[in-house]
Amino acid sequence: MKRDNLIRKLVDLVGETHVLTTEDAMSPHLVDWRGRYRGSAVCVVQPGSTAEVSAVVATCALNGVAIVPQGGNTGLCGAATPNPEGGAVVVGLARLNRIRSIDQANNTMTVEAGCLLHDIRAAAAAAQRLFPLSLAAEGSCQIGGNLSTNAGGVQVLRYGNARELTLGLEVVLPSGEVWDALRGLRKNNTGYDLKQLFIGAEGTLGIITAAVLKLFPQPRATATAWLAVASPGAAVSLLGHLQDRFGAALTACELISDVALQIVRRHLHCRAADLPASPWHLLIELSGSDDAATMREGLTSFLAAASDDGRLDNAVLAHNSEQARELWALRENIGEAERREGPSIKHDVALPISVLPEFIALAEQALGAAFPDLRSVVFGHIGDGNLHYNQSRIDAADNLAFLDARPQVNRIVHDLAHRLGGSISAEHGIGQLKRDELPRYKQPLELDLMRAIKRAIDPRGLMNPGKLL
């Protein structure tokens, strides 16, 4: 079908104002957040309901036109950016932004894919509940994209990632059919758990249009502290002691190198100025049903004992919610500060927690030998073994040229992570960025099974082509 005819059909389905065709209107949808990938498209369609998504997909399928699902476009691996060839239709989900229901007794909420993560968390809080998925981009990322990448965030340690937080899905399949499995069941042992095929599939098997999410009781109190530690090994040891002492009340444990902290302070006006000098830092948070004073008292006692026996160099305890927000701002703004600093080679690896110190030491040794003036920005969710490990030149002006070394840097980092029993993608997905890396680290049988699933559900390969596989 000719482009103009297809556009007219899509306009008939969703209305003229919701089909973007001009270069200016489409431009924000054709480039990824980091500016690494830029594509082209027939148009950008913005359906307002599941029925409209179904009709758009069916029309594209009938005419053999590829489809690129797009949420908040905050992904870091180019999964929501169309290919440069320009033959695809981008389907934006922002108008599917209703919170359909909240079931307080069942501790669930049913939301549409275009809901901002921030709005979901706020709606849960208004119902005296907690939706624990928390990301730095929660003010702009959409839940459909979070599910499509199996997002993690800072509270995976206690609550799990997107897979663990999802009970049911509504999905538009590549044929345009709607699979409605919006069930709020915690037990449903009736065969294959099909929803897990679509969570983490990066839009390659269908378009998630709605989900049933788990809710939890709102913590009555939290305690937040910034800890100075001598090394990643000391951080892992301290994490074990924190878990032994506080159990499930330990909600978050974030490792931050001093290099990462200084970049934030250089580019952003974050407060919390009186932090102890240290090569490494931990940001921890407890939450639970105790009153705030009791929780802070327990944490204070633990930190004093850890300092006395040498497990901890120093600590700053937040005394109120404002101070806690200031500490969290230092962690949550690392990504934005890195973007302002300039280009870098980024990695999102997962490792057994026990080998994180070994990975950092060996990676620094190998990268330092290959690139003597290299700087690594290290931070991440040490509580679940997810490390963001990013390289750039010490002189920021050299970073554009340094990007040419990405294959060599990736080989060092990814091979080491794989050798130590880790993964090359913890929470960012594969997208375009790591697609060609995947065959090196996945068993051939795993890839064959993934391709078989793709062929079974999307035999014509129209759903988000060029991503993941």
If you had to describe this structure to a student in words, what would you say it looks like?
- Helix content is 35%, strand content 20%.
- The chain is of the alpha+beta class.
- Helix 13 (356-370) runs antiparallel to helix 15 (406-419).
- The radius of gyration is 23 Å and the shape is globular.
- The strands form four sheets. Strands 15-12-14-13-17-18-16 form a seven-stranded antiparallel β-sheet, sandwiched between helices.
- The chain has 17 helices and 18 strands.
- The longest helix is centred in the middle third of the chain and has 17 residues, at 292-308.
Q: How does the overall form come out from the CA principal axes? A: globular
Widest sheet: strand order? 15-12-14-13-17-18-16
Radius of gyration: 23 Å
Average residue-wise pLDDT = 94
Strand content: 15-25%
Structural class: alpha+beta
Task: Please report the distance between the alpha carbons of the first and last residues.
Answer: 27 Å
Largest sheet: 7 strands, antiparallel
Question: Could you name the key traits of this structure?
Answer:
five-stranded antiparallel sheet; globular; alpha+beta
What layout of secondary structure does this protein have?
Layout: H1 3-14, E1 19-20, H2 23-26, E2 43-45, H3 50-62, E3 67-70, E4 89-92, E5 99-103, E6 108-112, H4 117-126, E7 129-130, H5 143-148, H6 156-159, E8 166-172, E9 178-181, H7 195-198, E10 207-214, E11 216-217, E12 221-229, H8 232-246, E13 250-257, H9 258-267, E14 280-288, H10 292-308, E15 314-317, H11 321-332, H12 334-341, E16 348-350, H13 356-370, E17 374-381, E18 386-393, H14 399-402, H15 406-419, H16 438-441, H17 444-457
